[in-house]
Design brief:
270 residues, alpha/beta, Rossmann fold, 2 domains, 12 helices, 4 strands, 53% helix, globular, disordered N terminus
Length: 270
């Protein structure tokens, strides 16, 4: 029998003492996954008394498969950031996902954090949100972590470390203009894409996370307050008008690489 830890996603949360309230909220939201053995959580408050701090942190970062950064002005001014970031950069180069969560306002122009896809926007940090919106951010993180854990469990560790499998380009449909950068979809193809998105992302929170992580956009700004089907319809129309259909499909396939409907759509039209 396979040892359960082989299927456990190792999550490293980097934060500072001044943001312990945000760390506690995130840990609370992730605790059901931890109790079930879906993930293991490591943060600075995990270090035991008498443990060499630098060694413990280095080991935790080296074994992490997903890193969450709770970013604030104190985080950027801390020794945690300056000492640990080179290690995190090296792990990012190896393919692990690094997810910044901007919890308080801070100056980011001289950092490279913006190159990572964030859950929350730097201009609207968690501290500026209502309680309801903060809960939504934490739930988006939980959903993302759970998705990564499911991928590791069903497809193995290599899924997290390698880019999504190449899409077969030998079978291209006439709905795509080969000379165009973006895809030009017929009404039937648009309907198929909407259904594929609803299949792969069955909740508005899932679709919202896709738009945030893969397109760096805000679903509510695109679709307003709508149900899932209406939001998917608005998202596809927005992608057509802005030339982002290809980016939407590629992002969706990367976010949920095991969905059969998305795979079938990509094979047919890309």
């Amino acid at each position: 029998m396979e040892h359960p830890l082989l299927n456990t996603l190792h999550v490293f949360i980097s934060s500072v003492e001044q943001d312990k309230a945000y760390l506690a909220q995130l840990q609370t939201h992730l605790s059901p996954l931890e109790r079930k053995g879906v993930i293991t959580l490591w943060s600075y408050n995990t270090i035991g008394v008498g443990t060499d701090r630098a060694t413990a942190i280095k080991q935790a970062i080296s074994s992490a498969e997903l890193v969450i950064l709770l970013v604030s002005v104190d985080f950027l001014a801390s020794s945690n950031y300056y000492n640990d970031y080179p290690l995190l950069e090296a792990r990012a180069a190896q393919g692990i996902k690094i997810i910044p969560v901007f919890v308080r306002p801070c100056y980011l122009a001289d950092t490279s954090l913006l190159r990572f896809q964030a859950i929350s926007r730097s201009e609207t940090p968690v501290s500026s949100m209502s309680n309801a919106k903060q809960e939504r951010i934490w739930q988006q993180i939980v959903d993302f972590v759970h998705t990564q854990a499911r991928q590791k469990h069903s497809q193995g560790y290599q899924t997290l470390m390698s880019p999504p499998e190449a899409i077969d380009t030998n079978s291209r449909s006439t709905v795509m203009n080969k000379e165009d950068e973006d895809l030009s979809l017929s009404p039937d193809a648009r309907e198929e894409l909407i259904k594929a998105l609803m299949s792969a992302f069955p909740r508005l929170a899932d679709l919202d996370m896709l738009v945030s992580l893969k397109l760096d956009e805000n679903l509510e700004a695109i679709a307003g307050q709508q149900n899932l089907e209406q939001a998917a319809f608005s998202l596809v129309n927005w992608a057509r008008k802005t030339g982002n259909v290809r980016a939407l499909v590629q992002g969706a396939c990367a976010q949920n690489s095991g969905n059969a409907s998305l795979k079938a759509f990509a094979r047919r039209y890309m």
